[in-house]
User: What shape does this take?
Amino acid sequence: MQVSIETTKGLERKMTIAVPSNDVDNAVNARLMEAARNVRLDGFRKGKVPMKVVKTRFGKGVRQEVVGELMSKSYYDALQQESIKPAGQPRIEATSVKEGEDLTFTAVFEVYPEVELPDFSRVKAERLVADVDEENIDKMIETLRQQRQTWEDVDREAQLKDRVNIDYTGHLDGEVFPGGTGKGSSLVLGSERMIPGFEDGLVGKKAGETVTLPLTFPKEYHNADMAGKKVEFEITVNSISEQKMPEVDEAFFSSFGIEEGGLEAFRKEVAANMEREMRTASRNKLKSQVMDEIVSLTKLDVPESLLVGEISQLRNQALQQMGGGKNVSPEALPDALFRDQAGKRVVLGLVLSEVVKQKKLTADPAKVREAIEEVASTYESPEEVINYYYGNQEQLAAVESSVMEDQVFDAILEQAVISEKKVSYEKVIQPEQPPAGSGKRQKKAGKDL
Assistant: This one.
């Protein structure tokens, strides 16, 4: 097998491969002999069909099949022979497949770039630190109570924080507009889920009442067709329920797995979980800063094939966030929406892989165990969870990958310049805001309208 390689542009390579005709003929003949032993043709017993007949009937198809297989195998053999690691799949094109001549074909592909690690001492980032105080714990317990709240029907006028069940119909210029109707909808008054004035207009109403509300959509409403429009909503209140919060008692503690120690033990457990959440949030925010810095300091060519693959992943994630993408065409999310983010992810992946390579990192078994135990500690039977992870290779590999990423991150932190900033607990755990223009709905945009 003869192999020649040329650089066409950037990271793209064109590899020309020639397979001796004898190798092709031998492979074709072997396949035909195999077929002759099994083929059934009228007038011949099984295995007794003359080779000349087999070749006439099946030779062309067999040769095409063998040529395809040889090109694939020869391509990968050539990569190994030349010590080349391609980035993505090749474009293979046959240039000569005539019988009696050498099989020649070309494979065009990209290679991984040479990665020169940036000077990590130029990376500057800020670690957020905070204390979990008694007030934070009180707020968290109140949040937990709200998560366990129940609703009880009442026969009185609706108040803020009540949940009402309603039917409604919206009219624009006397006509019902798309998305402006609902039947049997539940709404917590004061949640600001609907447009301004909608929820306030139901305060003081009783079950069975119907009210007509003249309202105006916000000028910056997410649906441009309705932005700033004056409408009327006819709303019927079907039922009213008031919020019932659980008492902070032994039954409440037990629902969270705290059987002994009462309030003190419960508060201690809540504080421990908050500390764990805060450490994770702080580290993730620091990691995000550091990774952004690394991308900005790294200069390298990005293989288009890797970029295309990353764009595809980001698009699929976006479709999943839109309810599985059942009603959204992938074409509605063009490559340009994801190209910048995909490029950063590819660059970061190449840099981190190079760090692993240079430092010869492997997942530390002790840290893998520690990570699994931390997850298991949040369950009632930690030992069962630990055994599950170690008995499930896929789950264990996922933890090892996460630990490896943390080890790479820690290796970079050793050289980076990290300062600390004392902030509130809420500031640490607050999700990072999406970039401007991301298309996220505003809080008051309304879920149904």
Remarks:
- The first helix runs from residue 21 to 38.
- The first strand starts at residue 2 and ends at 9.
